[in-house]
Design brief:
This protein has 322 residues and is of the alpha+beta class. Helix content is 27%, strand content 25%. Helix 1 packs parallel to helix 2 and helix 1 packs across helix 8.
């Protein structure tokens, strides 16, 4: 990582906005979303793998932001959506679990992240994405090509209640006795997985899946099971473009219930920065470079959409006491 992750992140966010659209007041990615509230309760399996306080069996309150992919808040839904869950811990702190409807990210290093964005930069300021440059990058990077091919073949979700979500990064879960287990997390919808064609979905109202989820929640809780996928020796744990082999052991460790819509204002947090590296004791990040840079990217994006970095209130008095 560069000497300052925030300097690097500023440059990356600038490139993201240049490629995907610069919509002031919105997130650089997953720009359009809706907030919901609910509860999470871990089952007895979770305690075998982590000492994290929210995974010991007590019900904990959560907020959930579901979102479209991309940086255009006015775009129609496609085949990529997101779900960011914030757990409110008994000590007043929070931890986040951020997932996509896609299994993998498109690059696995900072070099590749800068490279794909630079390749796609518009040839003229404010112009369309440079698709030829992007395709040239893809041709030089087979891991990115494989992920993009997989994503292109993925249908759209029929709706959030029937959508599975996946953490593209691995994390280390640490048990009470110090035992470490490397896992990837998945939300599996209790109602089952259902899809629809992207073309069909894109022809509907731009807010259709948000409105449908609100209607579903009005009829009763919408639920997902938290499922762990366990790494085995030799599995790539720092590569967000690499799947683990089929058949890796999985185990359900809890259930999420979404019960009502809410807003950032009602929650009392107008920023709602869902940084996936905001963790708690018992869960640790891996050395995945894409995971590591996300803290800076999320904070830069949050600063840009909320009026800038907060300066010292006494900055104007500098030098006055000399």
């Amino acid at each position: 990582m560069h000497a300052s992750q925030y300097d690097d992140a500023e440059e990356l966010v600038q490139k993201i906005r240049a490629v995907l659209g610069n919509f002031q007041g919105y997130r650089a990615l997953h720009a359009d979303g809706r907030m919901f509230r609910g509860f999470f309760r871990a089952n007895e399996n979770a305690r075998k793998y982590t000492r994290a306080v929210h995974l010991q069996g007590d019900e904990v309150p959560v907020t959930v932001r579901v979102s479209k992919g991309g940086g255009d808040p006015f775009a129609h839904f496609g085949n990529t959506v997101g779900m960011a869950v914030r757990f409110y811990l008994p000590n007043g702190r929070v931890t986040n679990l951020v997932m996509l409807s896609q299994l993998l990210f498109v690059v696995n290093s900072l070099e590749q992240l800068h490279g794909i964005l630079e390749a796609a930069l518009p040839l003229a300021p404010g112009g369309p994405m440079n698709k030829e440059g992007l395709m040239a990058f893809v041709a030089r990077n087979p891991n990115t090509a494989a992920v993009l091919q997989m994503r292109s073949q993925t249908p759209a979700p029929a709706g959030f209640p029937w959508c599975a979500f996946h953490a593209v990064h691995a994390f280390r879960w640490i048990a009470e006795d110090g035992t470490e287990t490397v896992v990837r997390c998945h939300w599996e919808p209790v109602a089952g997985v259902r899809f629809r064609e992207v073309k069909e979905l894109s022809a509907e109202d731009a807010e259709v899946l948000f409105n449908d989820l609100e209607a579903q929640v009005a009829q009763g809780p919408v639920e997902w099971d938290l499922v762990l996928e366990f790494a085995e020796p030799g599995d790539p744990i720092n590569d967000a473009t690499a799947l683990w082999p089929e058949g890796r052991r999985r185990e359900t460790v809890g259930r999420l219930r979404v019960v009502a819509p809410t807003t950032e204002a009602e929650i009392g947090d107008l920023v709602m920065n869902h940084d996936p590296t905001v963790l708690t004791d018992g869960i640790e990040a891996t050395d995945d470079p894409i995971l590591q840079i996300r803290r800076g990217i999320y904070e830069v994006s949050a600063a840009q959409r909320t009026g800038g970095w907060k300066s010292c209130p006494f900055a104007a008095m500098a030098g006055a006491g000399q």
